[in-house]
Specification:
1 helix; mainly beta
Length: 338
Amino acid sequence: MNIDLFIRRSLSIFAITAAAFVGHLPAVSAKTDAPILVLNSLNADVSVIDPKTWTEIKRVPVGKEPHHLYLTPDEKSVMVANAEGDSITFLDPMTAQVQQTMTGIVDPYHLRFSPDMKWFVTAANRLNHVDIYTWDNKGGTFKLNLVKRIPAGKTPSHIAIDSKSKIAYISLQDSHELTAIELATQKRLWTVKVGKTPADLYLTPDDKTLLIGLTGAAEVEAYDVSNGKAVLKTRIPTGKGAHAFRSQGDKRHVFVSNRSANTISRIDWKTLKVVDTYRTPAGPDCMEMMADGKTLLVTTRWAGKLSVIDLEKKAVVKQIPVGKSPHGVWTLNHASRD
């Protein structure tokens, strides 16, 4: 082969390969640059935090009492559930710009998509019911279709859905109960009494063990839900006001915030033991694990701040002022939910 032709072809192949490689870089960079979103429940807005400067760069008005948020199935929008505003605000996960506001969604305190993305479930914290929707995104317009409204006990709080998209588990905060609903039939399967003031739920990736944070106690209850019912396995002492969960993303550990004890416990969900404790001031609440596997974000509810925990140092290394009563926190640059 002519050596000049060989060199030109080799350079062309290299250029194409390099271009393809570079073509992937913006997506990686984009995730790293993705802002951190904090829901300020008593301000009806969202703090947008730059992850490089660790400063609040703007506030985005949403509806009244935003508490929790969730990514849409196409990953193009973050849904902010405005509980008392009876609405859901859609934000661009990269710019935090408002894309649309969906009204008529009654009291969406907590929200979850089923893993197969067929069902969308909300817990109406103040109105004592659970809503089950289907959804479609035809023509670029996201629409929810209410299938059934199911009366629940007092103060439905948090939702967990199994990996097969068959069962939704809901904590009933002021009834001190846990209930299970079959999504396909929208029928309640069972309801059991649990500890005092159950809040967030964490279902292990194998669908066998359901953890419940007991905000009215100082522990997490672990239930075996593998055989169509809930059987108490053990109680895990954590700290007063056990409330919200976030997996570490390593398929082994999950964090729980102890809101009254001002600590976060790291639980090995295979042994059901606490293996680490982190001190966090002023009412730690919702958490987000960043993709680096070293940085845990936690909303500091009573101080109006976002706290940043370095897991290797086991210490709060930054606190960023946000709005009043910060609750949900989320970034596209997050670790796995497993």
